[in-house]
Amino acid sequence: MIQDIKARILSGGEITEDEALALLSSPNKEELYQAAHEITEHFMGNAFDTCSIINAKSGNCPEDCKWCAQSAHYATSAERYAVVSPSACVAQATYNHKQGIGRFSLVASGRRQTDREIDMMSVSYRAIKRANPDLKCCASLGLLSEPQLQKLFDSGVTTYHCNMETAPSYFRELCTTHTQEDKEATLEAARRVGMRICCGGIIGMGESLRQRVELAFYVKRLGSYSIPINILQPIEGTPLGTSTPLSENEILSAIAVFRFINPKAYLRFSGGRAQLSAETQRRAIYVGINAAITGDLLTTIGRQAEEDMQMIQECGKVTSQEDWEVHYSH
Q1: CB of 214 within 8 A of CB of 165?
Q2: Contact 192, 146 (CB under 8 A)
Q3: Across the chain, which distance is largest between two alpha carbons, in Å?
C-alpha cells in the first residue's frame, strides 16, 4: 500500500484521507519513513528554509487557548512585557542573519494588535530591512485587519504566519474565544495585500489520529506551502499541562503523513522541538522536515543556530530562502 500511494504522489496524484489515516497507523514505520523521504527528495530536493523570531510582545493574552502559557486565563510563569524597541528587534535580526538564517519574524501575544502597536512594529521592520536588505521579513501578530497588514507589507513584511492549531473538528475543544474562520480571514487579507502565508498547527494536544490527518488536509486546502509542525510542550498551569508527550514514532509518522499530503511544502520544525533528541531531529529531517525556526537569543548564551546549521549541513541539506508561492502558485 505504501509503495502504491508513493508512486501515485510522485506521478502527480494525491492521497485520500482514509489512506493517510491508514499510513499514520501503519506498523511498517521504516517503509513509511523511506517513502516520505523519497517524496521530499523528488519534489523539494535538498532545500532547507530557516527563520528566526523575536517575541515582540509577551503575556496577558485574553484568548483561552488551552495549550498556551501566555493566556491570561491560566497561571503560568510566562514573561509579560509590552512591544520591544526597534533597536532590540534590529539587533536580534542582524545577530541571527549573520549566522546564515534567511528569515526573521516578530511574534506577539494577543488576539490582535492595536494600530499604535502595528505602527511601532512597522518602524522596527523598516529598520531591520535597512540594516539587512536581503533578510526576508515575516510577521505573526494575531488577527489583523487588512489596513494593518497593508502597513506591514509596505514596511517590508512579505509573509504572514497564522496557525490553524488543530483539526476543525477539534478546535472548539481547545479554544472558545476566536475561531478558525477568524484566522482564515486574516490569511485571506494578508494575501490580498501581497503577502505569502505560513500556516500549520500543533500535534499531541489530545487529537485523534483522524484529526491529525484532518489538520494536514486543512492546511493543504488553505494553500500553505510553509507548514510549521509544532509538538505540544505541556506547560504547567495550562489545561494541557499534564498531557502525555508523543513518542518518537508518533512524531515521525505524523511528519511522514504530512509529507504525503503536502508533497511540495516546507514542513517546518517549530515549537516543542527542544524535547526531541538530536538523533530524532536528524531522522525527522530525513523523513520530511525541510525548514526550521532556529536562532539564538541575545540575552542568553546559546548555540542553537550554529548547531542547527551544522545539523542541516550534515543531513545533506542546503539552506535556501526561496519564496515558495512563486514556485507553487495555485
Answers
A1: no
A2: yes
A3: 55
